[in-house]
Design a protein that fits this description.
Largest sheet: 5 strands, antiparallel
CATH class of the largest domain: Alpha Beta
Helix content: 40-55%
Structural class: alpha+beta
Strand order of the largest sheet: 2-1-5-4-3
Bound molecules: adenosine-5'-diphosphate
Order of helices and strands: HHEEHEEEHHHEHEEHEEHEE
Shape: rod-shaped
């Protein structure tokens, strides 16, 4: 860019100087011709008609006037005598511009290229009685003037080009410096500023660009992080499933092998019971995993779901389990409370909460179910169970997290229930709140916020 500016300014200055020289020469040449014609007019006054008009008079007058050329012409334009070229006598000069003008107005002038290079002949013709007197001198022509100026002009052009080149270099350096500083800062992703008001829009544009770039980079970075997290979580999920499957499978294999040995009827029955039990657990796990994974691909449209009905039906289905443990159920549920979702999702959420309230309750404990309609329907499941330690309050929603680590143990859960509840609530935009005190009980509350109806 700098080179281009330099070349351009050199070119402009060279063109400018050349034009200036040509115009000056034209103007100066014009003045010069006027001056010569005026001198010729003064010379013409020195001639009196009474002096005669032959070759001798012409020669004398020419000598008196330091060698100017004198020509006498008759009224019809025939040369009577010429001080410089006597042989012209008798030739017709009636077509000459200065003569024709003199015939018309009494005097005339003309400039013609001379035989010698760079010179021009200036003519002045004046009526003198019945003849015409023509005086002429050689003066330098416009081209002659230009030619004479040429060496100086070339030097001037070279000097000017050099000066312009240096100036352009300095100016471009001054102009480019703040721009280069802006670019340098932008390259370092720093906020740029310029003390020059002309560069302010450029700095602002660069800042906007840097910000946009920064945002994009952060987006890419966070997308990358999410992909890494998703991969890690997928691997962890697979590892957990494998681990959960391993326990019943080992058990089934062990007891199946036992069956091939000599066992008493009682031992055989016990082994078969264990195999069936572990088989059920395995099937249960597979079902849980399938249900959990299906949620990710479930984009089915929501519709109005009657939560009151689901609560009543689920409580009825689980009544035998509550009975077995002597649990008392208190239901404070409004009728016909609806939310925008899908039947199976609400069943999954409430089913998990109620099953947990039974599983983790004390013998002869109490479960209270609250359901309230309105702008934001609320469902609350309270129990008087073992409670959740504060450090586990967040973890219980993680996949495969169980407080009781002996998986096949007392409660036998896989730790997928609450993960599923949380996933459904998150996707629907519902608030899921857990309150618990160790040894006192737990309460799960869902606020079916209508802000995000799509479940
Ligand atoms: P699980 O199949 O083990 O019940 P969940 O995801 O439903 O899996 O629950 C995760 C863990 O949270 C449970 O193992 C349990 O320790 C704890 N938990 C869930 N609900 C309750 C509750 N109502 N009272 C006490 N602990 C609970």
């Amino acid at each position: 860019m700098r080179m281009r500016i330099m070349l351009l300014s050199v070119l402009i200055s060279v063109i400018g100087l050349t034009m200036y020289a040509m115009i000056s020469v034209q103007i100066y040449g014009g003045y010069e011709t006027d001056l010569v014609i005026r001198s010729l007019k003064v010379y013409a006054k020195m001639y009196e008609r009474s002096d005669g008009a032959d070759a001798e008079v012409a020669g004398e007058l020419s000598e008196k006037l330091e060698g100017v050329r004198i020509t006498f012409l008759s009224a019809d334009g025939t040369v009577i005598a010429d001080s410089e070229i006597p042989s012209l006598a008798g030739t017709d000069h009636s077509d000459r511009e200065e003569f024709r003008e003199a015939v018309a107005t009494g005097e005339g002038s003309a400039v013609r290229e001379s035989a010698s290079a760079g010179m021009a002949s200036v003519y002045y013709c004046k009526k003198a009685g019945d003849i015409y007197l023509r005086i002429s001198v050689e003066a330098i022509s416009t081209w002659g003037l230009l030619y004479g100026m040429l060496p100086m002009l070339i030097w001037l052009i070279v000097l000017e080009a050099l000066l312009c080149g240096i100036c352009a270099y300095i100016f471009t350096s001054i102009i480019l410096k703040p721009v280069q500083e802006l670019v340098k800062k932008a390259a370092l992703h720093e906020k740029t500023e310029s003390k020059y008001k002309e560069l302010k829009p450029v700095a602002d544009a660069m800042n906007r660009l840097t910000e946009a770039l920064e945002e994009k980079m952060q987006e890419i970075e966070s997308e990358k992080e999410q992909v890494v997290k998703a991969n890690a979580s997928k691997n962890e999920f697979i590892a957990n499933i494998t681990h959960e499957m391993n326990t019943p499978l080992t058990s089934i294999k062990g007891f199946a092998e036992l069956l091939t040995t000599n066992l008493s009827d009682e031992q055989r029955k016990k082994a078969i019971k264990v195999i069936i039990g572990q088989g059920d657990r395995l099937a249960n796990l597979v079902e849980c995993v399938i249900n959990y994974n299906q949620l990710d691909n479930d984009d089915l449209p929501p519709y109005e779901v009657n939560v009151s009905k689901i609560v009543a039906e689920t409580a009825e289905i689980l009544a035998p389990d509550m009975e077995k443990r002597g649990i008392k159920l208190i239901r404070e549920t409004e009728e016909n409370v609806t939310v925008m979702s899908r039947h199976e999702r609400v069943v999954e959420v409430f089913g998990n909460l109620l099953r947990n309230a039974i599983k983790y309750n004390k013998e002869n404990g109490t479960i209270r179910i609250l359901l309230k309609g309105g702008e934001t329907p609320v469902l609350r499941v309270e129990d008087t169970g073992i409670g959740i330690a504060p450090e586990n309050k967040e973890k219980i929603f993680d996949r495969f997290f169980t407080v009781d680590k002996s998986h096949g143990g007392k409660h036998g859960g896989f730790g997928l229930g609450l993960a599923m509840v949380k996933k459904i609530c998150n996707r629907a935009g519902w608030n899921l709140i857990v309150e618990s005190e160790l040894g006192v009980g737990t309460a799960f509350t869902i606020e079916f916020t209508h802000g995000k109806n799509v479940a």
